[in-house]
Model the fold of this input.
Amino acid sequence: MTDLLATAAGAALVFAATNLDDIVVLTVFFVAARATGRPRPRDIVAGQYLGIGALVAAAVVAAAGLLVVPDPWTGLLGLLPVALGVRALLARSADDGPPAVVGSLLGVAGVTIANGADNVAVYVPVFRTLEPATGLVWLLVFGALVALWCTVAALLGGHPRVVRLVDRVGHWLVPAVFVAIGATILVTSGVLPRLATLLT
Done:
């Protein structure tokens, strides 16, 4: 029993450390859902599960030696949230409410994958060392924590102060959050110096 609790605690710690920023992204999705109806809450939850599932699957495959993760090229996925944010900024005026930056399950999954591409580098060495039974515990913990993350984000997205803030400045704040997330991915991944080297 002690081993099981230790395994679950380790999985929870790794998930929380690698997905803390997802709370912000999910909150933005839920705020947009309340204001515009897009993406629908069930699409947000399903998209988050699909995105995290894809990241974990890629890490498991890489850990088995069947896939080489092209680090830091995964940082190019940061272009997705940047493009979504810029598109929303250009499409909205100051009189509009918060825009639906992403309107579908696949859009949510895409942003989740882009935002978590660097997680694979953390997951691969961990999954390499796990026995199948231990790996199953990790997957169950990850699944439970995705549900917790979505619940927390839905509560934050419905909080009166958050709603008032987004009503006032949501027309630029929501897209700006996506641009900032994408820029952070691009900068921290190390892909920009690699691109600069190729271009010179």
